[in-house]
Amino acid sequence: MNLSNQLINFIHLHEQDDIHSLALQAKQFPDIDIHIAIRQISGRRIAKEKIPSWYVNDRIIYPKHLSMEQCSSEQTARYKRSICKGRAMVDLTGGFGVDCSFISSGFEEATYVEHQEELAELVAYNYTILEQEKIKVVSSDAIDYLTSMSPVDLIYIDPARRDDTGRKTVLIEDCTPNILEIETLLEEKALQVMIKLSPMLDISLAVKSLKRVSDVYIISVGNECKELLFIKKKSQEKTSYHCVNIHHEKLEQFTFYKEEEESIVLGYTSQVDKYLYEPNASILKAGAYKSIAKEFTLNKLHPSSHLYTSDILYDGFQGRKFIVEAICSLNKKDLKMYLKDIKQANITTRNFPLSVQEIRKKTGLRDGGDAYIFATTLADEKRVLIICKKA
Questions:
Q1: CA dist list (Å): 227 to 73, 115, 197, 282, 306
Q2: What pLDDT, on a 0 to 100 scale, did the predictor assign at position 39?
Q3: 83-102 in b/e burial notation, b at 16+ Cβ within 10 A?
């Protein structure tokens, strides 16, 4: 398993080409395995954004598209590395090996397990290229390996979230392997278990389904929720919820407890002050609606709007911050008065009966520009447009 210099040069030369057209031109390149070349070109395009430190290595071999689609990004894998370390770890669902590659740097020993033999061989080759020989590569069924393995400090598992027909699944019990069926065995074999699940999953339901969850990590990249991590430890008292947003080199984190969130008594306001705040996607997904308001002494506009306001600018707020310029209703007189100098705007709806498209039709505003409009409902049930600029 190797890429020849001739093939590497061909891949670089045609990396920007249309791969479908390239496939049809196969006879023009009799010395090139066009199928391998196209797979590498396709894989490199994904890796350039998803795994940039691997992309710069010309010798890395990429698998079929599905494995690339399912693998973690380098950003989330690096974050996972920061939250766990120990002597030995096992990744039971290795895939393309991105998570194991980064997490293993915090451990003396690491084992990658993958049931697809061809993929395991490819990853073993790549680990050699990456000088990660300490990672032992095993081609085996995850449950078979789990049953016979010696105990370790960490088991990492990212169950397949597709059914037999290839359709995406979300529920824990629909994943392969089914974590609920092997949960006791996982706990017996590791001091700590890290389970990666779909960002679409209902977090509260998952915590109830799984036993002894010590930590939940809701990880967003560029304010888009990408991963849910559920950590199981031997000594667990109550569950900590960690809201994480990775944006380039900047890391936003907010930790809270559900018990405290539920006990907070919050007032709601119909008065929009100088600044408006929109929490990042991880905080919204985790449901830290009252905890974030308490942390920064913010007033919440409505129980269901999830927008906040204050007369003081809190730079450390985990989300977007805006300066409020005007507030108006949707009646024609107000729209004409307050939007007369605005031709385009970024529109967001929070607890509002109209969609963004319907508001655009009503106002005639194009997308983009420096203006931001939040269509929302205040505590007195008044529906308004809050016109802002970024703080």
A1: 10, 23, 7, 10, 22
A2: 95
A3: bbeeebbbbbbbbbbbbbbb
